[in-house]
Design brief:
Order of helices and strands: HEHHEEHHHHHH
Number of helices: 9
Number of strands: 3
Strand order of the largest sheet: 1-3-2
Helix content: 55-70%
């Protein structure tokens, strides 16, 4: 296992936090595996003090669990967490569409299409594809012009990326995801609330069920 080394002392804690979290999200650090402060400190190129601060933050956010005299346990994806995240995503993204539709003009539609077209070039890099998929949804939230709603969805993105990469391991089809985005855009072009929200909910449900199947293994 390897991590990038921090270059500026004032960024050591933030660097460790981001590196370890991204390692978990991208499953370079396997769910259920153990981490140890000494090896993390050496791999990241930082001292124990900023590392401990980073680990405390990761534990508060539910990514890891410190086990006395054992080490640091990387949390696994469980059904309740997945259910809660998807319930929040679905409710918030329906609201995004409700707020976005009255604001749409042709220029905005063009921006959305260009954002989505970038996905077609990422089929050979599934991890980048997952990140761009969630960026697409975050972009729609930004266009809704509700800052608090944007922040709510942004706060869910890391967990959603974690689940999405897990779904890829199970066999989530990137082509299917891309086609689902096309249906969302068609609904936006038609300025049809029901059509668009149905497309968004179907897109999220398909990912959800793939993840749930993954949890059965």
């Amino acid at each position: 296992m390897s991590f990038l080394k921090a270059e500026q002392p004032q960024l050591f804690k933030e660097h460790a936090y981001k590196e370890i979290k991204q390692g978990i999200i991208q499953q370079r650090v396997e769910p259920g595996s153990m981490l140890y402060e000494r090896s993390l400190s050496e791999s990241l190129g930082i001292s124990r003090t900023p590392l401990k601060l980073a680990l405390q933050q990761l534990e508060l956010e539910g990514w890891i669990q410190s086990l006395p005299r054992k080490g640091i346990l990387v949390k696994t994806i469980n059904r309740q967490d997945v259910d809660e995240i998807f319930q929040l995503r679905k409710a918030n993204e329906v609201l995004v569409i409700e707020l976005l539709l009255p604001l749409l003009d042709n220029e905005t539609i063009d921006k959305i299409e260009k954002m989505d077209q970038q996905l077609a070039h990422l089929m050979e890099d599934p991890i980048k594809f997952v990140y761009h998929d969630t960026s697409f949804h975050l972009f729609l939230a930004e266009l809704s012009q509700n800052n608090r709603l944007y922040q709510l969805i942004e706060n869910l993105i890391d967990h959603f990326n974690w689940y999405g990469i897990a779904a890829l391991k199970k066999g989530l089809s990137l082509d299917k995801v891309y086609n689902e985005h096309t249906l969302i855009i068609e609904g936006l072009k038609a300025r049809n609330l029901r059509q668009t929200t149905d497309a968004v909910l179907s897109h999220l449900d398909n990912t959800y069920y793939t993840i749930i199947e993954n949890l059965k293994d």
